[in-house]
Design brief:
The structure holds 2 protein chains of 2 kinds. By secondary structure, chain A is of the alpha/beta class. Helix content of chain A is about 45%, strand content about 25%. In chain A, the strands form 3 sheets. In chain A, strands 1, 2, 3, 4, 7, 8 and 9 form a 7-stranded mixed sheet that branches. A two-stranded parallel ribbon of chain A has the order 5-6. Chain A has a two-stranded antiparallel sheet with strand order 10-11. The termini of chain A are far apart. Helix content of chain B is about 35%, strand content about 25%. In chain B, the strands form 2 sheets. Chain B has a 6-stranded mixed sheet with strand order 5-6-7-3-8-9, sandwiched between helices. Chain B has a 3-stranded antiparallel sheet with strand order 2-1-4, covered by helices on one side. The N and C termini of chain B lie far apart (about 45 Å). The chains are: A alpha/beta, B alpha/beta. Chains A and B meet through helix 8 of A and helix 4 of B.
Chain lengths: ~270, ~250
């Protein structure tokens, strides 16, 4: 009887050690990132590779760039991965971040209905295309959510001297939503929309919409990774964050980024 | 197509039925998600696409709506390929509504042809979905149920011949669900063909005239609702109704 009780006690202790030590060894970090990157399937592809090498679990919070930066300022993430270089650099300059790195790039594209009522397909570049949309007052659907895509779009409108387009109600509309949801609406309502290429490639409900203009000079879409300031946010998992950043920037990580394809098309490129 | 052409179209629209799927398959990322489907849908009755999660109901709906192009085979609307005129006669309500960053009233006016649009018409639609009192409210401030009613209002605003709904009540409370179902049943009786996706057997029983039962990307049955629920059907459908099919 005593031997039996000792055996039971030993097994119980062993099981306790196994299950609790597993929990302790699992490190995890929160990555504040963008919906467009998430919608493309990039994180579902790359993070398991990182987790395999490091045993660090990464939880992604995917929102617009503006919201992701705001969340990071609030200390709600261990690392930031967005695509608006000026805002990222400002984030570091203001003391929220410690360092920013170029991670990868792709491009934005102008999508719209195949019949192209504003004839943007004939434009030489994105600025001329936006001018044509404005001249025709053709339907344009913006994300309107302070995302990197939205900010890029507003910069183009500014360049062609169409300021505050959301004030003109007749042809310009905002979904206030992520890229996938905005594309669904754009397709349903035959509107033009600026979109990142990777989301468009992954997007399944294309119907009669197509890429009407690509402009790789003016529409380069740069993604950066930003480490948070350790002094300002002492309770974040800076070690885990550094490991993810280092892995993504390493030869192995950069090769993995270039290996990410949807429908046999490469989605992101490295420097 | 410019606005004048749209006007002419809307006053003399073409017939889009039956919808015929011929040898349709859909492959995504090297997986066959819809398998060699042949099917015809007429304009009478309220059709429910039913099956367990992951069975391919939403993909089938999107194929019928023309949002997704089949990998092989083809889909015809009254023996025609999808074109702009056919698209104009269709509307879809998604599970999660996407609304414009505007007022409730502006969300309706967005979809209306400029010539047809009037305050009276917008009010009429808002009244139908019980949102008239919120006409000037920002759409983003609505509750989930109110947003879905607005999405339904937008879909109905163009008086579609064909209305697709992808599990529109899955996030709604019982009273809003009943309200939405009542509108859809009424719409179905008034010359709009409704194709409705659900995995909720009780809902299907309440609203369907005919059922298309899908399992693992294949249409297993297409039959009258009464026959389907009285178990005069396939082994797989019987198992599904008994709760025996799992992912």
């Amino acid at each position: 009887m005593k031997k039996y009780l000792y055996f039971v006690f030993f097994m119980a202790t062993l099981l306790y050690i196994i299950f609790t030590s597993t929990d302790d060894e699992q490190d995890n970090i929160i990555l504040q990132a963008t919906t467009s990157t998430d919608n493309s399937g990039f994180f579902s592809y790359i993070l398991p590779l990182f987790e395999q090498d490091t045993s660090i679990r990464v939880d992604v919070v995917a929102v617009g760039t503006g919201q992701a930066i705001k969340n990071a300022k609030n200390g709600d993430g261990d690392l930031l991965l967005v695509h608006e270089k000026e805002l990222e650099e400002q984030f570091v300059a203001d003391g929220y971040g410690s360092k920013r790195f170029d991670l990868m790039f792709n491009d934005f594209i102008l999508i719209g209905p195949v019949d192209d009522p504003a004839n943007v397909g004939d434009a030489d570049n994105i600025y001329k295309a936006f001018e044509k949309i404005y001249e025709k007052r053709a339907r344009f659907l913006s994300r309107g959510d302070n995302s990197g895509t939205h900010i890029k779009e507003l910069k183009i409108w500014n360049e062609v001297e169409v300021y505050n387009p959301s004030i003109d109600q007749e042809w310009y509309f905002e979904s206030g939503s992520g890229m996938g949801a905005t594309l669904n609406m754009s397709v349903q309502d035959s509107a033009y929309t600026l979109c990142d290429r990777s989301t468009w490639i992954s997007f399944k409900n294309k119907s009669n919409h197509t890429i009407l203009l690509a402009d790789r000079i003016n529409l380069i879409n740069n993604y950066g990774i930003v480490l948070l300031n350790e002094e300002k946010y002492p309770k974040l998992n800076h070690n885990g964050a550094k490991k993810l950043a280092e892995w993504l920037l390493s030869k192995k990580g950069q090769k993995a980024i270039e290996g990410f394809k949807v429908n046999n098309q490469q989605m992101f490129f490295t420097q | 197509m410019n606005r004048n052409d749209e006007n002419k179209f809307l006053t003399a629209s073409q017939d889009i039925f039956p919808i015929s799927m011929v040898n349709v398959t859909l492959n995504i990322d090297n997986k066959q998600l819809i398998c060699n489907t042949n099917m015809s849908i007429n304009n009478d009755g309220l059709t429910v696409l039913m099956g367990s999660n992951g069975s391919g109901k939403t993909l089938m709906l999107k194929l019928l709506h023309g949002l997704i192009i089949p990998s092989t085979g083809y889909i015809l609307w009254n023996n025609q390929k999808l074109n702009h005129q056919i698209k104009l006669q269709q509307s879809m309500v998604f599970q999660t509504p996407v609304l414009l960053k505007r007022s409730v009233g502006d969300n309706i006016s967005f979809v209306l042809n400029r010539k047809m649009r009037s305050n009276y018409q917008i009010d009429d639609i808002l009244e139908k979905v019980h949102l008239l009192e919120f006409k000037n409210r920002a759409a983003r401030l609505l509750s989930a149920g109110e947003k879905q009613r607005l999405a339904l209002g937008r879909a109905l605003a163009i008086k579609p011949k064909l209305l697709f709904l992808d599990e529109p009540t899955s996030n709604l409370d019982p009273s809003t669900t009943k309200f939405v179902e009542d509108i859809i049943k009424e719409v179905s009786k008034n010359k709009t063909k409704v194709i409705f996706v659900t995995h909720d057997m009780h809902q299907a029983k309440r609203i369907a005239d005919d059922i298309i039962f899908i399992d693992k990307g294949m249409v297993i049955e297409h039959t009258d609702s009464s026959d389907f629920f009285n178990l005069k059907n396939s082994v797989k459908a019987k198992s599904y109704l008994a709760g025996k099919i799992f992912l």
